[in-house]
Amino acid sequence: MSDHVRIFDTTLRDGEQSPGASMTLEEKLRIASTLEALNVDVIEAGFAIASNGDFEAINKIAEQSKSAIICSLARAAPGDIERAAEALKPALKPRIHTFIATSPLHMKVKLQMEPSNVLEAIHSSVSKARSLVEDVEWSAEDATRSELDFMCRAVEIAINAGATTINLPDTVGYATPDEYGAMFRNVIERVPNADKAIFSTHCHNDLGLAVANSVAGVIGGARQIECTINGIGERAGNAAMEEVVMALRTRGDILPYETAINAEEITQASRLVSTVTGFTVQNNKAIVGANAFAHESGIHQDGVLKAAETYEIMTPESVGLKKSLLVMGKHSGRHAFADKLKDLGYELGDNAFQECFKRFKALGDRKKNIYDEDIIALVDDEVATALNRIQVVSVSTHSSTKGRAISDLALQIDDENVYTVAYGAGPIDAVFNAIKELTDLSPHLVLFQVHAVTKGTDAQAECTVRLEEDGRLVNGQGAHEDTVTAAARAYVSAANKLFVKRERQAPSAVG
Ligand code: KIV
Ligand code: ZN
Predict the structure, then answer these.
(1) Where are the alpha helices (DSSP H) in 8-88?
(2) pTM over 0.70, yes/no
(3) What's the rounded mean pLDDT across residues 323-352?
């Protein structure tokens, strides 16, 4: 058995199913490029039948991708499978991923199907997919609560019908590592044609065991791990890609497996997914948290200065984390700025570069020292919002301890400039009221969060806004040296996503 473990990234499908994590087409294309820079083996780009937005995203990602296998999810239904194949047409390496539940509970309650009908559906769905593409993955949804004998029959049928990858998901995050590893060992041993397919893990994190289970699955014989950047996904999320990859790499002494991932791209991928989704990464998150390589205690600092390996089991550089450097001030020129962007891994088109440079100069007028983090926040904000229908043109507010706050706000909506004055309990409330008035939206504000990008009272603010309308949840982020402007940009970014989401249909629930 080969020791190569394929990395199947599902940030754009299972990850996007996190409440509030919806992404625009442009954002998905940026993430897909980053996934190719990471050198993932498979990108699950969406669920083609779920909405026109998903279809288009899969189609465009298939068009732009140069190396990865591009995959669409499909239920065990001919219409789903045909739609997936249609979306994948431009892909150099297309894969259809079809699934059906195999646990007694799901078959009886959710599918209302007899086990024998589920076996027939497996045969017909995999055969249908295989008649359209060469590369077919079949998943036994809720595998970890399925009966082993039944699952072995299901797997054998799927492989006979042409499945080349067999995924056994822990859909509800219920398994423990020993159990999950043993499931793979048993299935691979008992299914006569198991050698004709690659087995795959897909673990949810409800008990915080998704990464441990994925690794156990590999020890049990799986050679593909399904995971997401930052571990985003349904409920408590999926196995985090950065964690499984670095666990395999760092513990190669007892985990003799290889992935093809360019680990130096991990930090940038994590930042991008966090900016796009508005899900901030917790400080103590493994590999990509702000404190993952920080040493606070004197004893630790002393040890690390003498020899980094005293308290570091991997280097920050190995995951692409560069030291926070004082980069420039307002006198830095266009060339220095372009060099810095290159160094930080950005490739911007002319327009985006000009806009970012303008904002960088404006920031330099207000803030003496500009750090890498400032540039990352500014560029991410600019790139994420540049193509939005609604743009913030100008904001000004007045507030005092004596009365209500007032805001003057100008927006550009579909190329038309609109303007209003609104009141509120404070300046942010006044600005949000003005945006609601101009956009005719009245969503519920679920979350408003501010954090300073760097130290100091002149730091840029990075705001996150989560809005809810008729059960649709969206996140928006905005960064600016003026906190109220950052808040306005975050609210407008979320409002843009709400408009996009209104046009999309919710897919039937899958984990
Ligand atoms: O968690 C799950 O079972 C899934 C399948 C659709 C693969 O996401
Ligand atoms: Zn899942």
Answers:
(1) 25-38, 52-64, 78-87
(2) yes
(3) 80
